[in-house]
Amino acid sequence: MTTNYIRYFIFMMLIFVACTKDEYEGPSLQNLYGEFSLLSPFSISNLNPDFSNNEVVKFHCEFNKSVDWKITIRGLQTGSVKEITGFSNRIDSGLVSWNGNTSEVPFFSEETCALELSFLTEIDTLRDTLTILGKKVYEGIMVADFENGIPQDALVFHQFSMNMTFETASDDPLNGNSYFKMGGRMGWNEWFLGSIDFPLDMSAVNSSADEFYINLGVLSGINGEVASDQFINILISESNHPFNDDLTNNASDVFQDTMEVYKYQIRPVDWIGWNMISISYDQFEVKSSGGNNIRQPNNITAIKLQCQSCPGVSANCPENMSVDVRTDVDFLILTEGTDVLNQ
Known about the structure:
mainly beta; 343 residues; 2 domains; six-stranded antiparallel β-sheet; elongated; single chain; Jelly Rolls
């Protein structure tokens, strides 16, 4: 009997020791289910940033437990939005900052912005405002921003049909004061409406194809309507042939089937308003077999934007007979290392 009692006592002591160790795994119940509270206020380092001088805005806040949080910055004039998210019990000003970029176009301008710090599982929302004194300058090789009209050496071609708009305008630019309207209405069995070509010199570029980005703002929709199956072809040439060898055709001569040409298709263009499209060069497919089929950014000599759409005839898209194609463009910029919105 005594032996059994000793064994029982030792067994119970072992259970007690095992259940009272100091270490534990995972978050505490207080961290998971405790009442949320702020340990420090939501602070903003710079309420009047000049992003054109590379200034940044830093954010700081501390909580009593880890939560999913989101900082939302919204331009009151442009409607531009920047979101910064995380999961932690602290927003560290040494790690969380904003340099004036946007999560989606349009770009921020010199304007007042509303700031919100919200939490996924909590009802609290902290608010403030700041005023941008200078907007961010995006780095890259600017091909066309259309601020001074169509670039001098660019070539524009369009079909002779109804309502063709291959010209600059200032009524609804993505950035700055002007953009290029590229569209119209096609009344016969023709998919190609027109194009704009730009000569380039990329000899100083050192990036590989997967680190070289073509960024293009595209505007679509007229009075809420979008033409069926409208799209943009982006062609890139690595040909050394003269850019404008034939002065009679109103188009570049470096995109022939016998030359080294690569293609990417933005299809469909089916949204309303502006959208920023960014594509790394390695995503372009081979259009012609005139080269070595190795995409080399420093060999690029020209870029073409083609406006195309399903034609408004009975055999194709009769609904397009009364709708203008709209694939307007702005802010064509080439960047290295990252796309333009992630700068």
